[in-house]
Structures are given as C-alpha cells and as structure tokens.
Write a structure and sequence with these properties.
Layout lengths: L1 H10 L18 H22 L10 H4 L4 H33 L5 H15 L4 H11 L4 H10 L3
C-alpha cells in the first residue's frame, strides 16, 4: 500500500504555482508613492547630484569645499541658534497649554478653543507657514501692498 501511494505521487505532474498578483488594494497607494517620488526623492536626488557639478556641468568638489567659508559657517551657527531658541520657546508654550488643558480648571469653551487652536496650529508649520509669511509680508504680500498703497511705505 505504501508503494502504490508512492507510485501515484511520483507519476503525477509537478505542481505549477499561479503567478502572484499584487492585490488591487495596493492601487490606492500608487498616487502617494508617485507624490513621494516626485516631490521628495527626485528633488533630494537632484540636489545631491548638483552639489558635485559646476556651472558647466562638470564634476567638482569645490562646492563642498566652499562650505568652510566663514560666512557660510556663521549662517549655519545662526540657524542652529535660532532653531534652538524657537524650539525651547515653542516647547515651553506647548507645555503651558497642555498643563492648562489637562490640570487647569478651565471653562469648557476655553478648553475647547485651546484644543481647536492646538490642532490647527500643529498643522500650520513648515512650507505652509513659509508661504503664509511670503503671501502676507513678502514683496507682493497683502500687508506690504496695503502699506504701500495706503501709506506710501516702500
């Protein structure tokens, strides 16, 4: 009996696997991946490549060596200092708001307003914040145009 079972299995054709297909649920993340490639990976890769090219598009290390100039180093240090100060101030203000919301005996409307403001403010950083400043007080910003038109301030 054992031999007959072995004989049947040895004569049966080998199993072929069906090709694995990507589930259609992955189709929903394709736009996200395209967005990440177009607006994150491509610009980052482009910056890295252009770091090692001169204006004539020849390979050079001079751009990297130029980073040791005093003006550029002082700009880095100033940026780090500004980042540290604003992070500390933001952290302290955030701590005070969180303390007031959780421990403080605030009226419901104040607590609700603070939570709403915190939710909106946390999403209004980086590029949207930079755009808001440019659109408000930039060369062609709303406030700049208002001051220029109504008060003659250049």
């Amino acid at each position: 009996m054992a031999q007959s079972v072995g004989a049947e299995t040895s004569q049966s054709p080998p199993r072929t696997r069906a090709p694995q297909r990507l589930p259609l649920t992955w189709l929903g993340v394709v736009p996200f991946f395209l967005f990440v490639i177009a607006f994150l990976f491509y610009p980052a890769f482009s910056i890295v490549v252009q770091t090692f090219l001169d204006p004539a598009r020849n390979f050079t290390l001079q751009n990297v060596l130029d980073l040791n100039q005093p003006f550029i180093l002082s700009s880095y240090l100033y940026t780090l200092e500004l980042s540290a100060v604003t992070a500390i101030i933001g952290g302290l203000l955030g701590f005070l708001l969180a303390y007031a919301i959780t421990i403080g005996a605030l009226p419901g409307w104040v607590r609700s307003s603070l939570l709403t403001f915190s939710g909106v403010a946390s999403n209004f950083a980086g590029i949207p914040l930079a755009f808001a400043f440019i659109a408000t007080i930039g060369q062609l910003g709303l406030v700049t145009q208002f001051l220029r038109t109504n008060f003659g301030i250049a």
